[in-house]
């Protein structure tokens, strides 16, 4: 028996990167996982293949986030997938992982209103309305985990708009934690440092070496390390943690 046997989970943005590792890990603990993706269907299918290869269960849900109708489309697919496999549309674990990032080196002077609006639409508005829509599906004792960034605590001027959108995302945590506590639903934020998400930059040793210097451990994080923390928060073991900001950045910029 895994820690999440008979649980259902939605991991937004699990076609690749950190979301994929989270989806794999939750499934390995026994959860039926909705693997959400925006555009990269092949990658999402690969996530599902990896889950099933480990003996886990999942299904795909496509929905571009940050555009009109996004939440509706997401929940149509989610509810259909859950009903087909379990007979009901009940959700135990919601991981708001999908995120848009600022193009590297975007100075504050260069942020356009379009870029700003896109970051807030994907990183802030979509998770808020996903949580709102999930309220009717979430089981008592459920879990909401919001994936944020250490840039809400450390000044990185080139990431100001992204950090603002994640700072607003973090507000979901305390307010909904209090709102949902009577149902035993916990709501937490996990803030990440630089984490290898499989993108090409992590294949360049000199760049990885530079990025590693921000962590107290002098290395970049792995998606699996983040998935371990998310899985803990999703488990019964974390029932007494709610409204929390959890730094899972490998001690980024501790001083
Ligand atoms: P990633 O590799 O770029 O993957 C992003 C995921 O989100 C993909 O599955 C992508 O799906 C989905 N996604 C992005 N925009 C979307 C949209 N508009 N609509 C629907 N889906 C969308 O990202 P990651 O590095 O794993 O990051 C995961 C989370 O951790 C993000 O919230 C990010 O801000 C946060 N984070 C990451 C780091 C890091 O160093 N990696 C550091 C701090 C925080 P498709 O490709 O299918 O569209």
User: How many domains, as an integer?
Assistant: 1
Mean pLDDT: 97
Q: Could you name the CATH class?
A: Alpha Beta
Poorly predicted runs of 5 or more residues: none
Instruction: Provide the spatial order of strands within the biggest beta sheet.
Output: 3-2-1-4-5-6-9
Share in β-strands: 15-25%
| Proportion of helical residues | 40-55%
Bound molecules: NADP nicotinamide-adenine-dinucleotide phosphate
The end-to-end distance, rounded to whole angstroms, is 42 Å
How many individual β-strands? Answer: 9
CATH topology: Rossmann fold
Task: Tell me the major beta sheet.
Answer: 7 strands, parallel
Shape assignment: globular
What is the tally of helical segments?
Answer: 8
| Overall SS class | alpha/beta
Q: What is the correct CATH architecture?
A: 3-Layer(aba) Sandwich
Radius of gyration from CA coordinates: 17 Å
């Amino acid at each position: 028996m895994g820690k999440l046997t008979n649980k259902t989970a939605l991991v937004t943005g699990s076609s690749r990167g950190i979301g994929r590792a989270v989806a794999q890990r939750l499934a390995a603990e026994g959860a039926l996982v909705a693997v959400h993706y925006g555009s990269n269907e092949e990658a999402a299918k690969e996530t599902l293949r990896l889950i099933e290869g480990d003996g886990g269960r999942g299904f795909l849900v496509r929905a571009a986030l940050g555009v009109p109708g996004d939440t509706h489309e997401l929940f149509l697919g989610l509810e259909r997938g859950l009903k087909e496999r379990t007979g009901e549309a009940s959700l135990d674990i919601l991981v708001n992982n999908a995120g848009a990032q600022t193009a590297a080196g975007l100075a504050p002077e260069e942020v356009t209103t379009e870029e700003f609006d896109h970051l807030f639409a994907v990183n802030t508005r979509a998770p808020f309305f996903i949580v709102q829509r999930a309220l009717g599906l979430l089981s008592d004792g459920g879990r909401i985990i919001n994936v944020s960034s250490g840039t809400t605590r450390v000044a990185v001027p080139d990431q100001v708009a992204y950090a603002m959108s994640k700072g607003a995302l973090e507000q979901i945590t305390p307010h909904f934690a209090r709102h949902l506590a009577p149902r035993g639903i916990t709501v937490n934020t996990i803030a990440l440092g630089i984490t290898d998400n499989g993108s090409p930059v992590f294949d360049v040793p000199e760049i990885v070496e530079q990025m590693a210097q921000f962590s107290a451990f002098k290395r970049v994080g792995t998606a699996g390390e983040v998935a371990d923390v998310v899985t803990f928060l999703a488990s019964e073991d974390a029932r007494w943690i709610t409204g929390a900001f959890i730094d899972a950045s490998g001690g980024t910029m501790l001083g």
